[in-house]
Design a protein that fits this description.
2 domains, 6 helices, 382 residues, seven-stranded mixed sheet, 29% strand, 19 strands, single chain, eight-stranded antiparallel sheet
Length: 382
Protein backbone atom coordinates (compact mmCIF):
# COMPACT_ATOMS: atom_id res chain seq x y z
CA UNK A 1 0.00 0.00 0.00
CA UNK A 2 1.06 3.57 -0.69
CA UNK A 3 1.47 6.27 1.97
CA UNK A 4 -0.25 9.57 1.21
CA UNK A 5 0.19 13.05 2.74
CA UNK A 6 -1.77 16.17 1.81
CA UNK A 7 -0.69 19.75 2.46
CA UNK A 8 -2.50 23.02 1.76
CA UNK A 9 -0.81 26.38 1.40
CA UNK A 10 -1.96 29.86 0.41
CA UNK A 11 0.16 32.37 -1.48
CA UNK A 12 -0.83 36.02 -1.14
CA UNK A 13 -1.47 38.37 -4.04
CA UNK A 14 1.72 40.42 -3.60
CA UNK A 15 3.86 37.28 -3.31
CA UNK A 16 2.35 35.98 -6.56
CA UNK A 17 3.01 39.33 -8.27
CA UNK A 18 6.65 39.19 -7.15
CA UNK A 19 7.03 35.71 -8.61
CA UNK A 20 5.32 36.76 -11.83
CA UNK A 21 7.71 39.67 -12.33
CA UNK A 22 10.63 37.27 -11.91
CA UNK A 23 8.99 35.29 -14.73
CA UNK A 24 8.79 38.51 -16.72
CA UNK A 25 12.59 38.69 -16.54
CA UNK A 26 13.12 34.98 -17.20
CA UNK A 27 10.71 34.83 -20.16
CA UNK A 28 13.04 36.52 -22.68
CA UNK A 29 15.90 34.29 -21.46
CA UNK A 30 13.80 31.22 -22.27
CA UNK A 31 12.87 32.60 -25.70
CA UNK A 32 16.48 33.42 -26.59
CA UNK A 33 17.59 30.01 -25.29
CA UNK A 34 14.94 28.34 -27.44
CA UNK A 35 16.12 30.23 -30.52
CA UNK A 36 19.71 29.12 -29.83
CA UNK A 37 18.61 25.50 -29.31
CA UNK A 38 16.50 25.43 -32.49
CA UNK A 39 19.27 27.02 -34.56
CA UNK A 40 21.89 24.61 -33.23
CA UNK A 41 19.60 21.65 -33.81
CA UNK A 42 19.03 22.54 -37.46
CA UNK A 43 22.77 22.93 -38.00
CA UNK A 44 23.26 19.53 -36.37
CA UNK A 45 20.55 17.99 -38.58
CA UNK A 46 22.12 19.36 -41.76
CA UNK A 47 25.57 18.19 -40.65
CA UNK A 48 24.19 14.68 -40.00
CA UNK A 49 22.35 14.50 -43.34
CA UNK A 50 25.40 15.72 -45.28
CA UNK A 51 27.82 13.53 -43.31
CA UNK A 52 25.77 10.37 -43.81
CA UNK A 53 25.51 11.08 -47.55
CA UNK A 54 29.29 11.49 -47.63
CA UNK A 55 29.66 8.20 -45.74
CA UNK A 56 27.42 6.38 -48.23
CA UNK A 57 29.71 7.51 -51.06
CA UNK A 58 33.03 6.78 -49.37
CA UNK A 59 32.45 3.51 -47.47
CA UNK A 60 34.65 0.54 -48.42
CA UNK A 61 33.60 -3.09 -48.06
CA UNK A 62 36.37 -4.84 -46.14
CA UNK A 63 36.71 -8.57 -45.45
CA UNK A 64 36.70 -9.55 -41.79
CA UNK A 65 39.36 -12.26 -41.98
CA UNK A 66 42.30 -9.97 -42.82
CA UNK A 67 43.08 -6.33 -42.03
CA UNK A 68 44.25 -4.51 -45.16
CA UNK A 69 46.82 -1.75 -44.52
CA UNK A 70 45.47 0.02 -47.62
CA UNK A 71 42.23 0.81 -45.75
CA UNK A 72 43.94 2.47 -42.79
CA UNK A 73 42.02 5.62 -41.79
CA UNK A 74 39.17 4.91 -44.20
CA UNK A 75 35.50 4.23 -43.51
CA UNK A 76 35.03 0.47 -43.73
CA UNK A 77 32.06 -1.86 -43.48
CA UNK A 78 32.91 -5.23 -41.95
CA UNK A 79 30.60 -8.18 -41.27
CA UNK A 80 31.60 -11.41 -39.59
CA UNK A 81 31.54 -13.52 -36.44
CA UNK A 82 32.43 -11.81 -33.17
CA UNK A 83 34.59 -14.06 -31.00
CA UNK A 84 36.31 -14.05 -27.62
CA UNK A 85 38.39 -16.59 -25.69
CA UNK A 86 38.73 -14.96 -22.27
CA UNK A 87 36.15 -15.04 -19.50
CA UNK A 88 34.05 -12.04 -18.54
CA UNK A 89 33.95 -11.52 -14.77
CA UNK A 90 31.63 -9.42 -12.63
CA UNK A 91 33.62 -8.76 -9.47
CA UNK A 92 30.64 -7.18 -7.68
CA UNK A 93 28.82 -10.52 -7.53
CA UNK A 94 31.81 -12.79 -8.06
CA UNK A 95 30.35 -14.48 -11.16
CA UNK A 96 31.98 -15.12 -14.54
CA UNK A 97 30.89 -16.10 -18.04
CA UNK A 98 32.53 -18.22 -20.72
CA UNK A 99 32.11 -17.87 -24.50
CA UNK A 100 30.62 -14.37 -24.36
CA UNK A 101 31.87 -11.35 -26.29
CA UNK A 102 29.89 -8.91 -24.12
CA UNK A 103 27.63 -9.21 -21.08
CA UNK A 104 25.01 -6.76 -19.86
CA UNK A 105 24.18 -6.56 -16.17
CA UNK A 106 20.75 -5.04 -15.44
CA UNK A 107 20.32 -4.11 -11.78
CA UNK A 108 17.13 -3.08 -9.96
CA UNK A 109 16.58 -2.26 -6.31
CA UNK A 110 13.26 -2.14 -4.46
CA UNK A 111 12.86 1.46 -3.32
CA UNK A 112 10.49 4.12 -2.11
CA UNK A 113 9.36 6.58 -4.79
CA UNK A 114 7.66 9.94 -4.22
CA UNK A 115 4.90 11.19 -6.51
CA UNK A 116 3.76 14.80 -6.17
CA UNK A 117 0.44 16.15 -7.45
CA UNK A 118 -0.83 19.71 -6.96
CA UNK A 119 -4.06 21.54 -7.68
CA UNK A 120 -4.47 25.31 -7.33
CA UNK A 121 -7.49 27.54 -6.87
CA UNK A 122 -7.51 31.31 -7.29
CA UNK A 123 -9.31 33.27 -4.59
CA UNK A 124 -11.07 36.61 -4.72
CA UNK A 125 -8.48 39.25 -3.94
CA UNK A 126 -5.70 37.58 -5.90
CA UNK A 127 -4.42 34.96 -3.47
CA UNK A 128 -4.03 31.33 -4.52
CA UNK A 129 -4.61 28.17 -2.50
CA UNK A 130 -2.59 25.10 -3.51
CA UNK A 131 -3.29 21.57 -2.35
CA UNK A 132 -0.36 19.18 -2.78
CA UNK A 133 -0.55 15.43 -2.31
CA UNK A 134 2.63 13.41 -1.78
CA UNK A 135 2.24 9.69 -2.47
CA UNK A 136 4.93 7.17 -1.47
CA UNK A 137 4.95 3.78 -3.14
CA UNK A 138 7.41 0.89 -3.29
CA UNK A 139 8.70 -0.15 -6.69
CA UNK A 140 11.65 -1.65 -8.55
CA UNK A 141 13.99 0.96 -10.03
CA UNK A 142 17.20 0.64 -12.02
CA UNK A 143 18.31 4.09 -10.81
CA UNK A 144 19.04 5.05 -7.21
CA UNK A 145 16.26 7.22 -5.73
CA UNK A 146 17.46 9.86 -3.26
CA UNK A 147 15.02 9.65 -0.36
CA UNK A 148 16.78 12.59 1.29
CA UNK A 149 14.99 14.89 -1.16
CA UNK A 150 11.52 13.56 -0.20
CA UNK A 151 9.06 15.95 1.39
CA UNK A 152 8.32 13.29 4.01
CA UNK A 153 11.49 11.17 4.28
CA UNK A 154 10.57 9.71 7.67
CA UNK A 155 9.69 6.07 7.19
CA UNK A 156 10.64 6.23 3.50
CA UNK A 157 14.42 5.90 3.61
CA UNK A 158 16.16 4.18 0.70
CA UNK A 159 19.52 2.48 1.30
CA UNK A 160 22.44 3.28 -0.98
CA UNK A 161 22.47 1.23 -4.18
CA UNK A 162 25.67 -0.87 -3.99
CA UNK A 163 26.13 -1.12 -7.77
CA UNK A 164 24.19 -0.29 -10.92
CA UNK A 165 23.69 -1.65 -14.44
CA UNK A 166 26.87 -2.17 -16.45
CA UNK A 167 28.21 -3.66 -19.68
CA UNK A 168 31.27 -5.92 -19.58
CA UNK A 169 33.37 -6.64 -22.67
CA UNK A 170 35.86 -9.44 -23.23
CA UNK A 171 39.40 -8.11 -23.36
CA UNK A 172 40.25 -10.18 -26.46
CA UNK A 173 37.00 -9.61 -28.42
CA UNK A 174 37.55 -9.79 -32.18
CA UNK A 175 35.72 -9.52 -35.47
CA UNK A 176 37.81 -11.73 -37.68
CA UNK A 177 41.19 -10.03 -37.75
CA UNK A 178 39.86 -6.82 -36.18
CA UNK A 179 39.85 -6.07 -32.48
CA UNK A 180 36.50 -5.13 -30.96
CA UNK A 181 36.80 -2.41 -28.32
CA UNK A 182 34.22 -1.40 -25.73
CA UNK A 183 33.08 1.72 -27.63
CA UNK A 184 32.35 -0.31 -30.77
CA UNK A 185 30.54 -3.05 -28.85
CA UNK A 186 28.49 -0.62 -26.73
CA UNK A 187 25.67 -0.24 -29.26
CA UNK A 188 25.31 -3.97 -30.04
CA UNK A 189 22.43 -5.68 -28.24
CA UNK A 190 23.24 -8.64 -26.01
CA UNK A 191 20.04 -10.68 -26.49
CA UNK A 192 20.81 -14.05 -24.88
CA UNK A 193 19.59 -14.51 -21.31
CA UNK A 194 22.30 -15.83 -18.97
CA UNK A 195 21.77 -17.71 -15.69
CA UNK A 196 24.98 -17.92 -13.68
CA UNK A 197 25.15 -19.94 -10.48
CA UNK A 198 24.00 -17.91 -7.49
CA UNK A 199 26.97 -16.65 -5.43
CA UNK A 200 26.97 -16.53 -1.64
CA UNK A 201 24.24 -14.26 -0.30
CA UNK A 202 22.16 -14.53 -3.48
CA UNK A 203 19.51 -16.92 -4.79
CA UNK A 204 18.21 -17.83 -8.24
CA UNK A 205 14.76 -16.43 -8.97
CA UNK A 206 13.60 -17.16 -12.51
CA UNK A 207 16.07 -15.47 -14.84
CA UNK A 208 17.37 -13.23 -12.05
CA UNK A 209 19.79 -13.39 -9.18
CA UNK A 210 18.02 -12.12 -6.06
CA UNK A 211 19.34 -10.71 -2.80
CA UNK A 212 16.65 -10.55 -0.15
CA UNK A 213 14.54 -12.74 2.11
CA UNK A 214 11.46 -13.33 -0.04
CA UNK A 215 11.20 -12.57 -3.80
CA UNK A 216 7.40 -12.93 -3.55
CA UNK A 217 7.23 -10.14 -0.95
CA UNK A 218 10.19 -7.83 -1.63
CA UNK A 219 11.44 -5.47 1.04
CA UNK A 220 13.06 -2.07 0.63
CA UNK A 221 16.70 -2.63 -0.33
CA UNK A 222 16.19 -5.99 -2.04
CA UNK A 223 18.13 -6.30 -5.30
CA UNK A 224 17.58 -8.33 -8.44
CA UNK A 225 20.13 -8.72 -11.24
CA UNK A 226 19.58 -10.04 -14.74
CA UNK A 227 22.39 -10.88 -17.19
CA UNK A 228 22.22 -11.05 -20.97
CA UNK A 229 25.09 -11.88 -23.30
CA UNK A 230 26.40 -11.62 -26.85
CA UNK A 231 27.63 -15.18 -27.48
CA UNK A 232 30.90 -15.78 -29.26
CA UNK A 233 30.22 -16.64 -32.89
CA UNK A 234 27.39 -14.11 -33.24
CA UNK A 235 27.40 -12.29 -36.58
CA UNK A 236 27.90 -8.54 -36.21
CA UNK A 237 28.29 -5.64 -38.63
CA UNK A 238 30.49 -2.60 -38.07
CA UNK A 239 30.66 0.69 -39.96
CA UNK A 240 33.60 2.73 -38.67
CA UNK A 241 37.11 3.95 -39.40
CA UNK A 242 39.78 1.29 -39.69
CA UNK A 243 42.37 2.18 -37.08
CA UNK A 244 45.39 -0.15 -37.09
CA UNK A 245 43.81 -3.56 -36.39
CA UNK A 246 40.63 -2.16 -34.82
CA UNK A 247 37.95 0.49 -35.19
CA UNK A 248 37.59 4.17 -34.34
CA UNK A 249 35.11 6.97 -35.01
CA UNK A 250 35.25 8.20 -38.60
CA UNK A 251 35.03 11.95 -39.27
CA UNK A 252 33.35 12.88 -42.56
CA UNK A 253 34.41 15.95 -44.54
CA UNK A 254 32.07 18.17 -42.47
CA UNK A 255 33.16 16.69 -39.12
CA UNK A 256 30.22 14.33 -38.55
CA UNK A 257 31.37 11.31 -36.52
CA UNK A 258 30.39 7.75 -37.45
CA UNK A 259 30.93 4.54 -35.52
CA UNK A 260 28.02 2.13 -35.96
CA UNK A 261 27.72 -1.50 -34.92
CA UNK A 262 24.85 -3.95 -34.66
CA UNK A 263 24.12 -7.65 -34.46
CA UNK A 264 23.32 -9.47 -37.67
CA UNK A 265 24.38 -9.23 -41.30
CA UNK A 266 23.49 -5.58 -41.98
CA UNK A 267 24.55 -3.83 -45.18
CA UNK A 268 26.34 -0.49 -45.08
CA UNK A 269 23.36 1.12 -46.85
CA UNK A 270 20.97 -0.34 -44.27
CA UNK A 271 23.06 0.90 -41.35
CA UNK A 272 23.26 4.40 -42.83
CA UNK A 273 19.51 4.43 -43.44
CA UNK A 274 18.86 3.40 -39.83
CA UNK A 275 21.16 6.17 -38.60
CA UNK A 276 19.33 8.70 -40.79
CA UNK A 277 16.06 7.67 -39.14
CA UNK A 278 17.59 7.97 -35.68
CA UNK A 279 18.99 11.43 -36.47
CA UNK A 280 15.60 12.52 -37.86
CA UNK A 281 13.89 11.36 -34.67
CA UNK A 282 16.30 13.38 -32.52
CA UNK A 283 15.84 16.41 -34.77
CA UNK A 284 12.07 16.35 -34.23
CA UNK A 285 12.42 15.73 -30.50
CA UNK A 286 14.69 18.77 -30.15
CA UNK A 287 12.41 20.85 -32.36
CA UNK A 288 9.53 20.02 -30.05
CA UNK A 289 11.63 20.78 -26.96
CA UNK A 290 12.79 24.13 -28.37
CA UNK A 291 9.26 25.14 -29.34
CA UNK A 292 7.96 24.19 -25.87
CA UNK A 293 10.71 26.22 -24.15
CA UNK A 294 9.82 29.21 -26.36
CA UNK A 295 6.12 28.88 -25.49
CA UNK A 296 6.96 28.71 -21.77
CA UNK A 297 9.11 31.84 -22.17
CA UNK A 298 6.29 33.84 -23.73
CA UNK A 299 3.85 32.52 -21.11
CA UNK A 300 6.18 33.65 -18.32
CA UNK A 301 6.52 37.06 -19.98
CA UNK A 302 2.75 37.59 -20.00
CA UNK A 303 2.31 36.09 -16.53
CA UNK A 304 1.98 39.38 -14.56
CA UNK A 305 -1.14 40.34 -16.54
CA UNK A 306 -2.90 37.13 -15.50
CA UNK A 307 -1.89 37.62 -11.86
CA UNK A 308 -3.14 41.22 -11.84
CA UNK A 309 -6.44 40.11 -13.34
CA UNK A 310 -6.78 37.25 -10.84
CA UNK A 311 -8.13 39.64 -8.18
CA UNK A 312 -11.38 38.42 -9.73
CA UNK A 313 -10.89 34.65 -10.35
CA UNK A 314 -13.08 34.46 -13.48
CA UNK A 315 -11.24 37.42 -15.02
CA UNK A 316 -7.88 35.85 -14.21
CA UNK A 317 -8.91 32.65 -16.01
CA UNK A 318 -9.91 34.64 -19.11
CA UNK A 319 -6.64 36.58 -19.15
CA UNK A 320 -4.60 33.38 -18.67
CA UNK A 321 -6.37 31.81 -21.62
CA UNK A 322 -5.83 34.89 -23.76
CA UNK A 323 -2.17 35.06 -22.73
CA UNK A 324 -1.62 31.39 -23.62
CA UNK A 325 -3.31 31.92 -26.99
CA UNK A 326 -1.16 35.00 -27.71
CA UNK A 327 1.96 33.09 -26.62
CA UNK A 328 1.02 30.37 -29.11
CA UNK A 329 0.49 32.98 -31.84
CA UNK A 330 4.04 34.21 -31.26
CA UNK A 331 5.67 30.82 -30.66
CA UNK A 332 4.66 28.84 -33.77
CA UNK A 333 5.74 31.35 -36.44
CA UNK A 334 8.88 32.38 -34.53
CA UNK A 335 9.94 28.74 -34.13
CA UNK A 336 9.29 28.08 -37.81
CA UNK A 337 11.13 31.25 -38.79
CA UNK A 338 14.12 30.27 -36.64
CA UNK A 339 14.25 26.85 -38.29
CA UNK A 340 13.85 28.41 -41.74
CA UNK A 341 16.63 30.96 -41.23
CA UNK A 342 18.94 28.23 -39.96
CA UNK A 343 18.23 26.17 -43.09
CA UNK A 344 18.74 29.16 -45.42
CA UNK A 345 22.41 29.11 -44.47
CA UNK A 346 22.67 25.50 -45.70
CA UNK A 347 19.82 24.86 -48.14
CA UNK A 348 18.30 28.14 -49.37
CA UNK A 349 15.34 26.60 -51.25
CA UNK A 350 14.18 24.55 -48.25
CA UNK A 351 14.78 27.44 -45.84
CA UNK A 352 12.93 29.90 -48.06
CA UNK A 353 9.94 27.58 -48.26
CA UNK A 354 9.87 27.19 -44.48
CA UNK A 355 10.05 30.96 -44.05
CA UNK A 356 6.96 31.37 -46.24
CA UNK A 357 5.21 28.73 -44.13
CA UNK A 358 6.18 30.65 -40.98
CA UNK A 359 4.72 33.89 -42.36
CA UNK A 360 1.53 32.10 -43.38
CA UNK A 361 1.29 30.51 -39.92
CA UNK A 362 1.74 33.87 -38.22
CA UNK A 363 -0.99 35.45 -40.37
CA UNK A 364 -3.38 32.53 -39.84
CA UNK A 365 -2.83 32.36 -36.07
CA UNK A 366 -3.12 36.13 -35.71
CA UNK A 367 -6.46 36.12 -37.54
CA UNK A 368 -7.60 33.22 -35.33
CA UNK A 369 -6.57 35.12 -32.20
CA UNK A 370 -8.36 38.29 -33.33
CA UNK A 371 -11.49 36.31 -34.17
CA UNK A 372 -11.36 34.58 -30.78
CA UNK A 373 -10.98 37.94 -28.99
CA UNK A 374 -13.86 39.45 -30.95
CA UNK A 375 -16.07 36.46 -30.12
CA UNK A 376 -15.35 36.87 -26.40
CA UNK A 377 -16.13 40.60 -26.60
CA UNK A 378 -19.42 39.92 -28.41
CA UNK A 379 -20.41 37.34 -25.78
CA UNK A 380 -20.11 39.85 -22.91
CA UNK A 381 -23.41 41.28 -21.70
CA UNK A 382 -24.03 44.90 -22.62
Amino acid sequence: MADRFTETSTQGFFSRIGGAFIGLLLGPVFVVGAIVLLSWNEGRAVQAATGLSDAARSVIEAPANAVSPANEGKLVHVTGAATAQSKIADADLNVSFDAEVAVNRAVEMYQWKQKEESTSQNNTGGSQTTTTTYTYSREWSSDPIDSGSFKHPEGHANPAMPFTSHRFVAGDAKLGGFGLDEDTLRSIDAPSSLKPDAPAGWRANGDNLYRGDNPSAPAIGDIRVHYTGLPTGTTVSVLAQQSHDGFASYATANGYMIRLAQAGNASAAGMITAERKAESMWTWILRGAGTLVMFIGFTLFFGPMAILASILPFLGALVRGASAAFALVLTVPLALATIAIAWIAFRPLVGGGLLLVALAAFYGLWRWHEGRTAAHAAAKPA
